[in-house]
Amino acid sequence: MNAVRSAHRSVTAETIAIGSELLVGGRSDSNSIFITEALGRLGIEVRFKSIVGDDQADMVQVLKTAVSRAGVVIMTGGLGPTVDDCTREAVAKATGRRLARRKAALDGMTARLAQWGRQPNKGQLRQAMIPTGATVLANPVGSAPGFLLEWKGATLVSLPGVPREMEAMMMESVIPFLTEQLTRSPKSRPQPIIRQIFHTWGVPEADVDAQLLGLIPKGLPVDLGLLASPMGVLVSLTTKSGGTRPVSEDLLSSLAQEVRVRLKDCLFAEGRETMEEVVGRLLHEQRRTVALAESCTGGLIGHRLTQVPGSSAYVDRGAICYSNQSKVDMLAVPEELLVKHGAVSQEVAAAMAKGIRERAGVSVGLSVTGIAGPGGATATKPVGLVYVGLDGGAGAVITKEFRFHGDRSVIKQRSSQAALNLLRLWLIDRGRT
Amino acid sequence: MNAVRSAHRSVTAETIAIGSELLVGGRSDSNSIFITEALGRLGIEVRFKSIVGDDQADMVQVLKTAVSRAGVVIMTGGLGPTVDDCTREAVAKATGRRLARRKAALDGMTARLAQWGRQPNKGQLRQAMIPTGATVLANPVGSAPGFLLEWKGATLVSLPGVPREMEAMMMESVIPFLTEQLTRSPKSRPQPIIRQIFHTWGVPEADVDAQLLGLIPKGLPVDLGLLASPMGVLVSLTTKSGGTRPVSEDLLSSLAQEVRVRLKDCLFAEGRETMEEVVGRLLHEQRRTVALAESCTGGLIGHRLTQVPGSSAYVDRGAICYSNQSKVDMLAVPEELLVKHGAVSQEVAAAMAKGIRERAGVSVGLSVTGIAGPGGATATKPVGLVYVGLDGGAGAVITKEFRFHGDRSVIKQRSSQAALNLLRLWLIDRGRT
Fold it and tell me: Structural domains in chain A?
């Protein structure tokens, strides 16, 4: 694979997602994220991503552009059995090859379909038509085979668009192939691209930026990235594959350690871990149980906590208390509190947390009450005013006030994050004592 | 704007999303979906989408490719105040123009920052540097100005990557500009691309396909699209902009009507409407109230219903009953039912729906109990077994059994969709009587 080795195009890749539905919306191209990570571990950097519809001429155009600028080109989609699916034809057309039915492709597909008690139909037989000279890639989980070929110094790979099938074929065929090609030329083997991710909550992007000022020594081929979203600011350290000064693992871990020190408590998770997983892990470790009292979040906190497998061990119950009466019925919030302070108040947040903890008999009760908007604001209580409460027993109830911006959905998300973060900090504190 | 008018490239557009974070993941390019819809209404078809990092040479490469194949090129991102942001420089480099500070750009930004009580800093001053000959596009919601220029017969537009800013500038500047250009040449004005969307639930993709067989008369420039997801199968009718036989609105509405007839009850919404909005609309129209009893969905149904503004008028409360004890406490599910049939059973689903309806005093109680996995399965009850219950009072309780496939998250999603759909059909039935 000269393309990967050559000086100019070394470690450069492009993904091409094929399918008209990707152009008009309804689905995002999540495949390319997986491919980018998998190639990055080999030191191959995805620098371009293209999306094109089920149009043969457009696909040929995109393919030609891709091989002119990338050494590895990974296409996903357009390998199905319908007439819309024309990746095979487009690759044959672009590369000037014929399509021929290949035994390896047909046998694999027939065997797969036989497992399901079926025989290939006419459309599926088309799926065994592969450009001449290409290597057939077996599909261990579906019927559509993929293929790989060398063209104009680039490696061209065609995989199905179904994520499960694409992922299996990347790991079982494409990555081993590229690894072997890279290994054959150890001298030019690129540095793996390492990306470390840190999730923060509660500090504005500008302040995170200020906290990390001067972190990366000048000239070091490491990128510091910041990305703000309603769920917090994501910080990333990414090594550059083309760097002349390779970054050692030791150096990267000392940078990561410095990030942790500087971000302190606002760092809630690293890598793929989510807030709900962190909270779940702490609850599990400390053998504590939780119950929820949700008003403006409407069940979102419960939904998030129960996304984690095994959460039934520590999530006992939740009360979604939208009406005032339900706060009285389900949580024993005193009616006079609701009258005196209103449902969106520190006092009611505290009473909700206490109420659910006592009724459920759990270690900790967590509550949220607020105005998600767009309606419901008053002269003194604007949209985005949110109170979070936590009762860990022993009489001490913590409450916190927030003033969030954004639409209804954003305010719900931020409220759920604020509540889970309060619980996280409380659990960390309990774990210390 | 000759490019849009010229025969070859008429109605062809490309979007370019700029930003290294879009390459490595963490955020999908939702901007391009908005742009595709907005241009489609003018008859301009987005045929290519590109994503490129914050690398000036790569951006120049992508820009040159784009103008070679599209008449309208819309870039998003890379207009911020940091050194990473180099869209301005890349456009200047690609088109061979200089960058100069433009009064229109500076004044707009200064006025916007003054509203926030701030003055432009050094980085922000860079944002007023615009390629010579370009038209400055005002940013009505943020500080970064955009710009528009003609190059090699194509219209090149650069907008900020922040969705709210990009959307405002598309609607206030770009669409009026393109409309005017198209209007000047009424003869070649392209047909608008009309896309109608139908959301179905409960019928496999192959069956939806079979139901719609032969719907589109041969040669009619309308595409029928099907897209399966955990939330159901989406059906789309899209007119082709390049069709020689323009599709009249009458013809398209008769096709849409035929889709409705053929899909019947499995069609739950059209266009942008969601299941929770449909259910909310029906509850509101019928002045009914609902309460929820959620086990395996963990609050997801409550979260979905309360995403809809105004839902506090019809959502009274919900009980997230993860533990068996909570089903007894919160819903008065008889303990002998739990012992005899298990928590995941038709009998318990019915008792949960009845329990929450009676306790809340609402029109209808909706319940879900099931095994979301990966743990919790038994010899007779596999992962994915889900029961949904509905109690509308008057003694009649409906239950339905489902056997879903997929991971924990997918099973939760499908369970919530099944429960809401049961409520939808029940409400439609009540509305008829």
Answer: 2-188 (3.40.980.10), 195-270 (3.30.70.2860), 275-432 (3.90.950.20)
